[in-house]
Amino acid sequence: MASGLISRHLDKRSAGRVIRNVRAESETMKTKLKFPVAKERSIFFPKEASCPVCRTEKVLEPHSMAIVNLSAVLMTNRKTRAGSMSDDLEGFLRLIWHGAHNGGTGPDAGTEGSLDIVEDARGGQADLYFCSTGCLRQFLNECVDELERRIEKVRKRTSLRADTR
């Protein structure tokens, strides 16, 4: 198996020729993330035009980019599918672990944890920009890693309480 992630991008100018962007699997994020990465009226991440993962490639217009888009529309007429953005909406993006309970099965029974990636996005709109699908994947992996760290903290607290009984 090749050592590295390969993301492929089609370039219209190259008549369908595949361009490869190779990133080492061991590459780590150059920025320590602080969650949530976007909130309230700060609904664009990152604020500057460099990828928040590798910090070397540009994002935002006119550059190529992978985007996580969160959107909500206040429907004014469902029949005609008419709607608009509204400051009455607040959006969020959250990862949640819900452990089994009441006789359910699965790992980490009775344990819950969550990670807010975007919170209180006014108007229900937010965009997260990355220079490649590889950097997007690394960001999402970091989010899952952080969720697992939070689950582990709950697991340890729960086992400490059980041990003191």
Give an overview of the whole structure:
With 165 residues, this protein is of the alpha/beta class. The chain contains one helix and ten strands, in the order ββββββββββα. The protein has one helix at 133-163; strands at 5-10, 18-23, 38-39, 44-45, 66-70, 74-77, 82-84, 90-98, 112-122, 126-130. The strands form four sheets. The protein has a three-stranded mixed beta sheet with strand order 3-9-8, with helices on one face. It has a three-stranded mixed beta sheet with strand order 4-10-5. It is globular and about 55 Å long. The termini are far apart. Mean pLDDT is 79; it is low at 1-26.
Name a few traits of the molecule.
165 residues, 3-stranded mixed sheet, globular, alpha/beta, 19% helix, disordered N terminus
List the helices and strands and how they pair.
Blueprint: E1 5-10, E2 18-23, E3 38-39, E4 44-45, E5 66-70, E6 74-77, E7 82-84, E8 90-98, E9 112-122, E10 126-130, H1 133-163
Parallel strand pairs: 3-9, 4-10
Antiparallel strand pairs: 1-2, 5-10, 6-7, 8-9
Mean pLDDT equals 79
Share in β-strands = 25-35%
Q: What letter string, H or E per element, gives the SSE order?
A: EEEEEEEEEEH
Major sheet details: 3 strands, mixed
Strand order of the largest sheet: 3-9-8
Oligomeric state, counting identical vs distinct chains: single chain
Summarize the structure.
The chain has one helix and ten strands; from the N terminus they run ββββββββββα.
